[in-house]
Every structure is written in C-alpha cells, then in structure tokens.
From TrEMBL:
Hydrolyzes RNA 2',3'-cyclic phosphodiester to an RNA 2'-phosphomonoester. Belongs to the 2H phosphoesterase superfamily. ThpR family. Residues 8-92, 99-173 form the Phosphoesterase HXTX domain. The keyword DNA-binding does not apply. This is RNA 2',3'-cyclic phosphodiesterase. Keywords: Hydrolase, Ligase. A motif (HXTX 2) lies at residues 128-131.
Length: 190
C-alpha cells in the first residue's frame, strides 16, 4: 500500500518566505513539530493507503480534471491556528487570491475520486499551508503573541498550474514526499 495525497506545490520563492516566517515563529521555543519549508504544500485531498494497482485510475481521473482547469493565482497571506490561536493544535498560513477557482478545483477532485472508492470530504475546505503541529503546552503564549503580531504576513503571489499525486513515507524526521505524477492544467482560461 502507498500512503498518498493530492496537492499543489509551492514555488521556491514562496518556500523561502515561509522559511523566514517559520524561523520567527520558532523564536517562541514552543514544543512544535515544524514542517520543513521544502515540504510545505497545499493539500487538496488526503487519500490514505492506496494499492499500487489503483494509481493508474487515479492518474486518469486527475488528468481528466486537469483538462478542465486553467492556471490561476494564489498568495500565502495571514496566519493562525486550528482550532483557534488560543487553543492551537495546527499552525498555518492562509491563502488568498482566486479562492473560487481553488474551491472549484477541490470539488472537481472530489467528484473524480469518490467514484474510485475514496471517501468524500465532509468538512468545509479551509485552504491553508501547515507550518507546524503543537506537541506540548509550554511557551504557547509567546507563540500566540508572535502569530497575533503577524496577521498581515504575506508572500508573493504564485501560479497554480498543476496538481501532484504524492507518496508520503513517514520517517523519524518527518514525512518524506515523493511525487508519483503531475497533472498540468490544460483547460482554456476563463
């Protein structure tokens, strides 16, 4: 079985800005499992463990979706925590830009993967980039202050021009992601 998810990659300049911001957050010295900036991505759908023989059908489904989508722009902006900054478990950077197109892409991926036997996501889609997961309660007040002081955080806008099916291997130093295939958008611009 292969642990998989569908995501949007971030360009290197955006990763570099996120790395600088993460360094600022780390100054709180809170007990957080930080995500390496080169591993930060926008997850569209977590598929879980998938038998290797199902990958070609997934590829076909995602390529079909990609033929109906044209590139669009997003921007990493704002920051916060789930469920709230006061009760943080996940630290994130938000996204703005062409949110409607991103939502449409998410719905198309759901519609293409559910017939293949994958669970439908019932929670509302809250696009975000996960920076870290809280592992302990110590020094969270300092981290909360840093997050509150950086609500206007933003990185440069970037083009979303493909989706990627990733394999995820859990390692002691965090998950390692390997692209299984990329599905570039070839739809006509809207």
């Amino acid at each position: 079985m292969i642990r998989t998810f569908i995501a949007v990659d971030l360009p290197s300049p955006v990763q570099a800005v996120l790395e600088r911001f993460e360094r600022e957050l780390r100054k709180a010295d809170a007990t957080v499992a930080w995500i390496r900036p080169d591993r930060i991505h926008l997850t569209l759908k977590f598929l879980g463990n998938v038998a290797p023989e199902r990958i070609p059908a997934l590829r076909e489904a995602l390529e079909s979706v990609s033929r109906t989508v044209s590139p669009f722009r997003l921007q990493a902006a704002g920051c916060g925590a789930f469920p709230t900054i006061r009760q943080m478990r996940v630290i994130w950077v938000g996204l703005r830009g062409d949110a409607d197109r991103l939502g449409d892409l998410k719905q198309k991926i759901e519609a293409a993967t559910v017939p293949l036997g994958f669970e439908s996501e019932d929670r509302p889609f809250k696009p975000h980039l996960t920076l870290g997961r809280v592992k302990g309660r110590g020094r969270l007040s300092v981290l909360q202050e840093i997050l509150m002081a950086n609500q206007s955080f933003e990185a440069e806008a970037f083009d979303v021009a493909e989706v990627v099916l990733y394999k995820s291997d859990l390692k002691p130093d965090g998950a390692q992601y390997t692209p299984l295939f990329r599905a570039p958008f070839t739809g006509r611009p809207e």
